[in-house]
Amino acid sequence: MSAQQVEANGVRIQVEDSGGDGEPLMLIMGLGGQLIHWPPDFVDALVQGGHRVIRIDNRDAGLSQHLPELGVPNIALAGLQRALGAAVRPPYRLQDMAQDALGVLDALAIPRAHVVGMSMGGMIAQRMAIAAPARCATLTSIMSSSGARGLPNLQTKVLRVMLAKPRGHDTEAVVRYYLDFFRAVGSPAYPVPEPAMRELILQTIARSYDPAGNLRQLAAILADTTRADELARVRCPTLVLHGDADPFVLIECGRDTARRIPGARFVAIEGAGHDLAPQVCQQLLRHVLPFLREHPLTHAPA
Predict the structure, then answer these.
(1) Exposure of 29 by Cβ count < 10 A (0-12 exposed, 13-18 middle, 19+ buried)?
(2) 2-152+210-294: what CATH class?
């Protein structure tokens, strides 16, 4: 794996590239997530499946450029505006984040790639497929949503944990906060041992801990009210995967995404919540790898 920063859409984006001459595949992580949150075994399986895997840190996350000059959005106000159908004015949009990802492909001289996104990363991937259909060989949307009005919200227990703040400013307080959050959204059938969660959280904090950046990303999600209708314009082969026990982005959100994309394939992942536990990754790969083999880059774009 080679790590580098590239200039994409006017923002510095951190990239890890497996290299090789396999078919390019971009992995895009979710809200506040970092490229290290794609499990190594999952990435290795994609590489062994014949792909050049490109992972990125989204803007305001990880080692990519953070944008404190854009301020801290009022999420309570943005949520109310969204609920009332009023315009939300975020520091930047999901469309901008999609252009960041497309800019990474430009910087790496990759004309066309498979695009895989999880949660908010799935929304960004959807935006890529809408904006640049010739650049996306396939779209895989994991544990994500169309953003349509009327879809069910996250479970109350998850919202309560999400809105809580670390009880202190030391590292251990932040670790405890994220342990509570990961337990709340994790797969009930496949609980991840606490030592493994703790190790990943410490790696995450060491790379970047930026709650304000998370809020700017969340504002971009809340502001994207037109994507649901625009999904009808997606023309690349699409796979939608969603855990049937996801308490954060409920499975109805995944079903709605698949209904809106012409020809999309929907698969429910049994026992999966909103995480990438080893057993969840194994189930995802059982569907992702055959789907990618079925739709190689040599197929002409629609």
Answers:
(1) buried
(2) alpha beta
